[in-house]
Design brief:
The structure is a single chain. This protein has a 6-stranded mixed sheet, with helices on both faces. Strands 5-6 form a two-stranded antiparallel ribbon. Helix content is 35%, strand content 13%. It has 2 domains: 133 residues, Thiolase/Chalcone synthase (Peroxisomal Thiolase, Chain A, domain 1, 3-Layer(aba) Sandwich); 167 residues, Peroxisomal Thiolase, Chain A, domain 1, CATH 3.40.47. By secondary structure, it is an alpha/beta fold. The protein contains 12 helices and 8 strands. Helix 1 crosses helix 3.
């Protein structure tokens, strides 16, 4: 890997998203148009059909593949590529867009992610497991094993996870396009019905409909769009063996997060993430996954997350705010 290949070569000049939630009155194209045109406006694109040279899109449940985006945005005479990569879909679509610009192939591209799981008629993702090691066949059931092991090993408890839920619910009330706008208390979390112990209702992120978009361009062109552009320093994806079949999996960390962080920090030149990172948006399908991310990303030592949670380190007013928009828990999932 060349850690310097993309560092500061690509700039984000526009962002947009639709309102996340149970969007029964919208189809995927409605959400794509809303997100993309907000990004166009944010970037100051006067003629997006001329200025955008390629589109990279991502969806876990697309019904028409790339045509869903091409038809919605009338982008027919240029490449439109689709990424389907489960929970990493949005990141991976953005990654391909960054690579396409950084290598010099295109000057300006659109990245758009969208999904409408509420129209699928099921309450959650379809999961197929083989029963290896006796793990349950639901995401909540599976991650609850990690939570129980973490509690036993490091002395954490449901109250620590509850504080994460309370934080994200508060943050979600401040985001105009979030799915949930409801303050809750630790007591609310602890008294809610159990989904899969130790997870109660408020420890789990519900699925929602939504779409988001980004306009990215070469660094030297960014000032044509705006002065406060954001440079991309790193972008990484990693995999690990299926935990159900990995004899070295200890249920105390998420290996792909550790591997991807290592790549990203090398690309960005970060030696001390706890001190060098000011804000983080992490995958919080369950409160436990956010807790593990604190440690796997190097924001605190393994087993120490509960102390940082109690001290408010990851709250909006803390030293390293995490999921400032409410995360998957309240902004929207996906």
């Amino acid at each position: 890997m060349n850690p310097h290949a993309i560092r500061d070569q690509v700039a984000i000049v526009g962002m947009g998203c639709c309102k996340f939630g149970e969007n029964w009155d919208k189809d995927p194209q409605d959400m794509i148009v809303e997100a993309a045109y907000e990004a166009y406006e944010d970037a100051g694109l006067e003629d997006p059909h001329r200025q955008i040279e390629a589109v990279f899109c991502g969806a876990q449940y697309p019904s028409k593949g790339t045509a869903e985006v091409a038809d919605a945005l009338k982008m027919y005479d240029r490449p439109v590529s689709m990424v389907v990569n489960y929970c990493a879909t949005g990141t991976d679509a953005f990654r391909y867009g960054v690579f396409a610009v950084a290598c010099g192939m295109y000057d300006t591209v659109l990245v758009v992610g969208f999904d409408k799981p509420k129209d699928r008629g099921v309450s959650g993702p379809s999961v197929a497991v083989t029963g290896v090691r006796g793990l349950p066949a639901t995401p909540a059931g599976w991650f609850s094993h990690c939570a129980a092991r973490y509690f036993e090993t490091y002395g954490a408890g449901r109250e620590d996870l509850a504080r994460i839920a309370v934080k994200n619910h508060h943050n979600g009330t401040l985001a105009p396009k979030s799915m949930l706008k409801r303050e809750i208390t630790v007591d609310d979390v602890l008294k809610a019905r159990i989904i899969s112990w130790p997870f109660g209702l408020y420890d789990c992120a519900a699925q929602s409909d939504g779409a988001a978009a980004a306009i990215i361009t070469r660094r030297e062109l960014a000032k044509r769009f705006r002065d406060d552009f954001v440079l991309v320093r790193a972008i990484a994806i990693a995999l690990a063996p299926d935990p159900k079949e990995d004899p070295d999996f200890d249920f105390l960390r998420w290996k792909p997060t550790v591997y991807a962080a290592r790549q990203a920090y090398e690309q960005a030149g970060i030696a001390n993430p706890r001190k060098e990172i000011d804000l983080a948006q992490v995958h919080d399908c369950f409160t436990l996954t956010e807790l593990l991310a604190y440690e796997d990303l190097g924001f605190c030592e393994k087993g120490a997350a509960k102390e940082y949670i109690k001290s408010g380190t990851f709250e909006l007013s803390g030293e390293l705010p995490v999921n400032t928009d409410g995360g998957l828990k309240t902004f929207g999932h996906p």
